[in-house]
Amino acid sequence: MTKVTMTINGKEVSGDVEGRxxxxxxxxxxxxxxxxxxxxxxxxxxxxxxxxxxKAVKSCTMFAAEAEGAQVSTxxxxxxxxxSLNVIQQAFQDHHGLQCGFCTPxxxxxTAALLKINPKPSEQEVREHLEGNICRCTGYHNIVKxxxxxxxxxxxxxxxx
Amino acid sequence: MPKxxxxxxxxxxxxxxxxxxxTGKYTDDIQTHAECAAVFARSTVAHGIIKSIDTSAAADMxxxxxxxxxxxxxxxxxxxxxxxxxxxxxxxxxxxxxPVLAHGKVRHVGDAYAAVIAETVxxxxxxxxxxxxxxxELPAITNMKDALAGDNFVHDEIGTNQxxxxxxxxxxxxxxxxxxxxxxxxxxLELVNNRLVPNxxxxxxxxxxxxxxxxDYTLHTTSQNPHLTRLLISAFVxxxxxxxxxxxxxxxxxxxxxxxxxxxxxxLVLAAAKKLGRTVKWTADRSEAFLxxxxxxxxxxxxxxxxxxxxxFLAFRTETHAxxxxxxxxxxxxxxxxxxxxxxxxxxxxxxxxxxVKAVFTNTAPVDAYRGAGRPEATYSLERVIDMAxxxxxxxxxxxxxxxxxxxxxxxxxxxxxLEYDSGNYDALMDKMEEVSDKAGFxxxxxxxxxxxxxxxxxxxxxxxxCGIAPSNLVGILGSRVGLYDAATVRVNATxxxxxxxxxxxxxxxxxTVFPQVVAEMLxxxxxxxxxxxGDTSKIPFGMGTYGSRSLAVxxxxxxRATEKIINKAKKIAAHMLEAAEADIDFxxxxxxVAGTDKxxxxxxxxxxxxxxxxxxxxxxxxxxxxxxFYDPANFTYxxxxxxxxxxxxxETGKVRVDRMTAVDDFGNVINPxxxxxxxxxxxxxxxxxxxxxxxxxxxxxxxxxxxxxxYAMPRADDVPYYIVDHSQGNACTHNPLGVKGCGEAGAxxxxxxxxxxVIDAIQSGGINVTHIDMPVSPHRVWAAMNNAK
Lengths: 161, 790
Known about the structure:
The complex is a heterodimer of chains A (about 160) and B (about 800).
Chain A: E1 2-8, E2 11-17, H1 23-30, E3 49-52, E4 55-58, E5 71-73, H2 87-94, H3 104-117, H4 123-129, H5 141-150
Parallel strand pairs in A: 1-5
Antiparallel strand pairs in A: 1-2, 3-4, 3-5
Helix pairs in contact in A: 2-5
Chain B: H1 16-20, E1 35-42, E2 48-54, H2 56-59, E3 64-69, E4 105-106, E5 112-118, H3 121-128, E6 132-137, H4 144-149, E7 162-168, H5 173-182, E8 185-193, E9 205-211, E10 216-221, H6 226-237, E11 245-248, H7 264-276, E12 279-283, H8 286-292, E13 299-307, E14 313-325, E15 352-361, H9 375-393, H10 397-404, E16 413-414, E17 420-421, H11 426-436, H12 442-451, E18 455-464, H13 472-477, E19 486-492, E20 498-502, H14 511-523, E21 530-533, H15 551-578, E22 585-588, E23 591-594, E24 600-602, H16 603-611, E25 626-631, E26 640-650, E27 655-666, H17 673-693, E28 723-726, H18 746-765, H19 779-789
Parallel strand pairs in B: 1-12, 10-11, 14-15, 20-21, 27-28
Antiparallel strand pairs in B: 1-5, 2-4, 2-6, 3-5, 7-15, 8-13, 9-10, 9-12, 13-14, 16-17, 18-26, 19-20, 19-25, 22-23, 23-24, 26-27
Helix pairs in contact in B: 9-18, 14-15, 15-16, 17-18
């Protein structure tokens, strides 16, 4: 067992982990932060996306020990300080960008990373940026729309309610 | 009227808040202090005899608490099939036993033969690898036609790989044969409806617990229908009395059919919980999901369409081989028969239909209902052969369909495949589709594509489906072993807010938002004062769950019936409060008033009075305000639609891009258009996935080659376009109180043939005579077909 210490959503946490413990497992099982989801075992689905030192990372692709000293952000830390939904979360609700909700934490975290580097992405840039996040429910239409809306772009001309 | 957000409002979903903030509670998110973990040892060969299983080394591994093998479940029952199908000769279908853990033989890669329970999942996994199973490998049966010819059987005790040989409608067989023999023109098409994996993003998970003091079991599980799971475990698999078993399906991360069924892992965690007195959790990884979730589709079909010289349809005849995999999953026998054969008249006035389905056991994962369940297979066969016929006889595909459509004045319409359609207007759907898709602009878009060296095609499709599953009387005649009603309890609390317990289960469909819209509309109150309770057998009266686009049409109707009972009782209470005759009480906008006076009480005041029954006439009115209704539909509902799509093909690579996809659907009345549109979007995404990307491939040894997201091509955001969706042409269902038809599966039913029809149109526009390509229409297949035809 190795002791790891990191800052998650602004709060320092530590725990004893096996060398093989993935960051995703550390979050879910040791810290019981179950907002980060596991949807596959090949780092394809993106449901486990978190931010490590400001960059989007699939938390199943790194060991907990590799996050020693890191700043980690997860879905649990995304809402505004007063508990209300942040701009991205609100856009997903407003535009029905989620159904079963399982991929949603990863989608929100991936979107946050995208808008940081590309504040006004085009539709095609959004679609390409979502390559690593699979959603089975929405057919992506409303996810793309929500992300464009979260970036402040007019989505009123995009088809459907 | 409700203050806001009643029937017809595009209300945003209240359930979203917990999903967006990471506070949803899916099965694997539930953690208890006494929890231990189950991991399964699964067969790596497709077919083999279990000679011995040595668990001694595994038992000595750190943290191991117990190991189970098939021997431990020999005495318990098997997981049954829910529908009894009889073959054409009257013989009942073959029903091999489906044990909790494989015993005697393993029958597909992933078939579990042992389970390890350990303190942690890592310890259980390490120990499972130490189990020594001596399995004598047998030749794998993977090809359906070979399976019927050989003497190598998946289940030796039944002595055949044919589950049944079903004819529908058998009395039409001779007349159909005769019509085809004598027809002016017959179009014949052999096609594959490719095998798919549903791939709900949340893998299956189950947690069993047992209370030794009371003998009560609790199962948390990823289920679309917790009551059905309880019934199957209680009555068939384990014999736990229903009153001693609570099944809870908390937040569930998608289902698409795969979580309808009871699986052996659910029984295992309950048995282990009892043995150990511990809470036992199992969660599938994605590879296990690919290997063991019920798959979908997998039909081989030959379809013939007979036409007269004017293009009138005379008969459809099909022969289908339907793969049911190694064991019968709960709905596996209904999907290729009564959810498929009964739809083989489509939207058309064709007088004769004959369907033959041979269901075949193979050494592959069980196959069962996946989004659409039989109707996508029927629609694909029909709409492909109609398109091909139009091209063969030189007719416009849309015009040929329109000529043969059932007309609006013909309802109720008895189809040649045995269903009575209640309502529809297929020409109006086509008109709307042509308008919103800008069909008129297609020629210009094709010219633009051609200028870039690309081929552009336009594909069209009309579909009808049967959902709102289903009238118990009818499905009983058709072989169902269950009734398919649903139930709801409306509880008005003393302070005027409501808890509505529903048998339907929401795993993405938005019930927590939509059902309150219905109740709020009826009671004239704020929908935010109404909460839905679902997914817990200890809290809700009963329910048959969510599948077959049934939740609103069936369970929603139960909610309406229960709410009507609430209004009736509340009127009695109001009459007492207002000292008036019950017959004189009006109920409007949430207020009870005495006709012709200004005397009135609000709904909230009546609710409070129901629980503080001072001066109640107890001989006439019981205290309390809570009502339950069971609703059994009179008929299926019949959503229909007209879809079109435009694809662009790069002739150099064969790559197909769906550029425009339009879905115009008749869902009857719509409660929440935002949610309905979202359901269609999701279906379209899955349908485009089937048409272009997804394929489940077993090699000749029965190894699943497509068992991860590296190998199975899930649609991603840049594989699909924005969709054009319209449901303005609804014709209300005539036989349920909401007039709703169901929207959950339409997109997945209507889109695959639309895409393939467009691909063929594009290729033929280049002067290349390709008449059919099987799904998925991959770049390789398109490129090869085009080059072979040159």
